[in-house]
Write a structure and sequence with these properties.
mainly alpha; 9 helices; Rna Polymerase Sigma Factor, Chain: A; Arc Repressor Mutant, subunit A
Length: 201
C-alpha cells in the first residue's frame, strides 16, 4: 500500500484525523530543522523555528491551496520565520561545506567542485577546521538572499521553480542569484587559500 501524500495527509487532518498531522510533522521535521539550522547557524533557534512553523501550518491548514504541493509551502513558512529570527538577533547563518550537490544536473558533484573553477582546486580536506572556518567567514559575508538559494538548491533538492515559490522571486532571478552566489563564493574561497597555506607554515 502506497503511503499517503502530504496533501492527502493534510486533507485527512482537516477532516479531524489528528494522527495525519502528526505524520506530517514526523515526515518533514528533520529536513526542515536542517534547513533552518544551515540558515541560522543556531540549533536552539532552529528547534524554535521548526515548532513555530508547524504551529502556523496547523493553524493555517484550512487556507492551503489543495492544487499546490505542501512541502514548498512548509519551507516558505520556515524560511520566513528563519529570516525573522535573523533580523531580530542580527545574526548570520553558517552553512556546511562538505555536503553533496543535489541541484538539477549536478548529481554526484560536491559544492566544492563548483567553487574550484579553472586550475585552482582547494587542496584542503573540506572537513578540516581551516576549511570550515574559511567557509563560515565567506558565508557570513554573503548576502542573505544568495545564501538562501544556495541552501535550498544544493542541500534540500528543491528544483528552481519551487525555490522561486519559497523565496517569492521569479524563476530567472533564482538562477541568476544562484550563479552569482557560486561565482562570488568561489572567488573568495580561492583568494583565501594562499592565506590559509601561509598561516600553516
Amino acid at each position: 500500500m502506497n503511503a499517503p501524500t502530504d496533501e492527502q495527509l493534510l486533507r485527512k487532518f482537516l477532516t479531524g484525523e489528528v494522527a495525519a498531522f502528526e505524520l506530517l510533522v514526523r515526515r518533514h521535521s528533520q529536513e526542515l530543522y536542517q534547513f533552518v539550522l544551515r540558515f541560522t547557524g543556531d540549533s536552539m533557534a532552529a528547534e524554535d523555528v521548526v515548532q513555530e512553523t508547524f504551529l502556523q501550518v496547523h493553524g493555517s491548514a484550512a487556507g492551503f491551496d489543495p492544487t499546490r504541493r505542501l512541502k514548498p509551502w512548509l519551507f516558505t513558512i520556515g524560511a520566513n520565520k528563519a529570516r525573522d529570527h535573523l533580523r531580530r538577533l542580527n545574526r548570520r547563518r553558517e552553512v556546511p561545506f562538505d555536503a553533496p550537490i543535489s541541484g538539477e544536473s549536478e548529481v554526484g558533484r560536491r559544492f566544492v567542485d563548483l567553487l574550484a573553477g579553472g586550475d585552482v582546486v582547494p587542496d584542503e580536506d573540506p572537513a578540516d577546521d581551516e576549511s570550515r572556518i574559511a567557509v563560515r567567514r565567506i558565508m557570513e559575508a554573503m548576502p542573505e538572499k544568495q545564501a538562501e538559494v544556495l541552501i535550498l538548491a544544493y542541500y534540500h533538492r528543491f528544483p528552481y521553480k519551487e525555490i522561486a515559490e519559497i523565496v517569492g522571486i521569479p524563476l530567472g532571478t533564482v538562477k541568476s542569484r544562484l550563479h552569482a552566489a557560486i561565482v562570488e563564493f568561489g572567488r573568495q574561497y580561492r583568494e583565501a587559500a594562499p592565506k590559509r597555506r601561509s598561516e600553516e607554515r
